[in-house]
Design brief:
single chain; 234 residues; 83% helix
Length: 234
């Protein structure tokens, strides 16, 4: 054996470190873009009126977001690394535009506090998912069922407008997305351990898909927590 050729035991930690670092860096970039887009949009009376004063524009933005998530998730193996990166950043920006309404509903202080709480919970569960020796695969079906239940209950509550049901949805949502953070982190860790170090395109694609996954966990956890911690503007 060539002594210059790294063994799998030497290569795996290097690949994993590179992969997970890329995931968190791209996720952080996405969150920063979302925050900037929300702040800029909320500060423009023209954009706020254009987006939230016209249901068609808002629906188009939401449909566009869903389309981008599907395009990245389902077509990641067909996309170039640069295209996948662009689509993720575009999605993060559009999501910030849509979420800008929160800045006019909740006080800035409560949004900041909620963000800190969310960040703390996310980091704790992501660290747990990364280093636990427990196999979290069994959580998958339970969390997926909980996610489906949240979506169905949210649709029903559009018509019922029940504060009690909304409270229950938020409480279950926090549990589900906290669990998904740990579950998805472990899944990405397993993916990173088998990622090909010599295929930079595949590695970049994987980091973008991982960043999108954890980004969605973070954003949804933040939104659920905001219903508990958010303070309405007068």
């Amino acid at each position: 054996m060539n002594q210059n050729t790294p063994s799998s035991a030497q290569t795996t930690p290097e690949v994993l470190s590179l992969f997970m670092r890329g995931v968190y860096q791209w996720m952080a970039a996405g969150l920063c873009l979302t925050a900037l887009a929300a702040y800029f949009t909320a500060g423009s009376a023209f954009l706020m009126d254009l987006i939230f004063g016209n249901p068609i524009v808002l629906i188009m933005l939401i449909v566009g977001e869903l389309g981008l998530v599907i395009a990245i998730s389902a077509g990641i193996n067909k996309l170039s690394a640069s295209t996948a990166s662009f689509l993720f950043l575009l999605y993060s920006t559009l999501n910030g535009v849509v979420l800008s309404s929160l800045l006019n509903i909740y006080t800035g202080a409560s949004i900041f506090t909620t963000f800190l709480v969310c960040a703390g919970m996310f980091v704790a569960m992501s660290v747990y998912g990364m280093f636990t020796q427990k196999d979290l695969t069994g959580w998958g079906n339970m969390l997926f069922m909980g996610l489906v239940g949240i979506i169905l209950a949210s649709v029903v509550n559009i018509f019922l407008q029940s504060p009690g049901l909304e409270f229950a949805i938020s409480g279950i949502g926090v549990i589900v997305f906290v669990g998904l953070t740990a579950y998805d982190t472990q899944k990405l860790k397993n993916m990173g351990e088998s990622a090909p170090l010599d295929d930079q395109t595949a590695l970049r694609r994987g980091t973008i898909l991982g960043a999108l996954t954890l980004y969605l966990d973070f954003i949804n956890l933040f939104l659920m927590l905001l219903r508990f911690l958010g303070e309405m503007k007068e």
